[in-house]
Amino acid sequence: MSVTIERYDELRAAHDALTLRLYKTLSQRAIDEMATRLGVRDPKRTPGAPDVERAIVLDSALYDYSVPGTNTNAIARFAKHSAELPADERLLLAAMKSARVTVLEVTARASDFGVPVRDVLAGEALLLADRGLSEAGEPGDLVLMRVLRLEDCAMSTGVPLVVPRFALTLIQRAGPLPATAWAPKPRALVATSLHRLALCTEEEVKARLATMVALNSVQPRVMRARRPRQSAAGCARRARLHRSHDVAPPRAPARSALGMRQRRRAADRGATLRGDR
């Protein structure tokens, strides 16, 4: 890791100050929506909401909520007017725009500064700059974090959460994820599913959510093929066949009044051209 502790402290201070400014841009609609998705109480209107839940909802509203019709989050909108910001804040904003929630497994104790981890969902090894994890992380620990990729290092952001060990095997089935899974919309879906997993307390619910993360959230949904519409001629042929076997015939598709008028006018034009009228 080429970044020094002093440089890390500078980036962390700039990141924390920038995040507080970004929180002030959030709408109540974004906070309400993410609180509903995560299944927690409203962190602004409920004073007694746990601090961890409040922090997760605000972080999710910042990164994972997109204004309907725009597909952009608060960070992307703020970054459009970042030309006059200091260099460190522009650097952090660029990394925050592509930050993603993932599950990190500590692979070794930190030596000096920086924790060797394995990104379970991305399938790659990282050296993570995180002071708390450097001091307390043990090999085998599973942590849910949002990761910022900078030029000199990888940094954590958001709220670190412990992932139950039993969920690792299920989550591993989904990784490594293809690059398309880290587009804004799928990335937000993965983040919400993982946060719900880490916030749950009942083992059955945890197991169900872990299965969702592994099998549904990060894999394309298989759309059921629609049955082809039956034509009137086809229904007539099947009706004659059914009558010959004393079976109730299938119903012909309903025709709208507009469609019937259009067919009647087409028939009249055909009769005129043929000289019938």
Task: Outline the structure in words.
This protein is an alpha+beta fold and 277 residues long. The protein has two domains: 213 residues, no CATH class; 43 residues, no CATH class. Helix content is 48%, strand content 13%. The protein has eleven helices and five strands; from the N terminus they run H-H-H-H-H-E-E-E-H-E-E-H-H-H-H-H. The protein has a five-stranded mixed beta barrel. Strand 2 and strand 3 form a beta hairpin. It is elongated, with a radius of gyration of 28 Å. About 4% of the residues have low confidence.
Write a brief caption for the model.
With 277 residues, the protein is of the alpha+beta class. Helix content is 48%, strand content 13%.
Provide the descriptors you would attach to this structure in a database record:
277 residues; alpha+beta; 2 domains; 5-stranded mixed barrel; 11 helices
Give a quick account of the main beta sheet: strands, pairing sense, barrel closure: 5 strands, mixed, barrel
N-to-C order of helices and strands: HHHHHEEEHEEHHHHH
Number of domains: 2
**Strand-residue proportion:** 5-15%
Overall radius of gyration: 28 Å
- Which class of secondary structure composition applies to the elements? alpha+beta
Low-confidence runs of at least 5 consecutive residues: 217-228
Helix content: 40-55%
Instruction: Order the strands across the largest sheet as they lie in space.
Output: 1-2-3-5-4
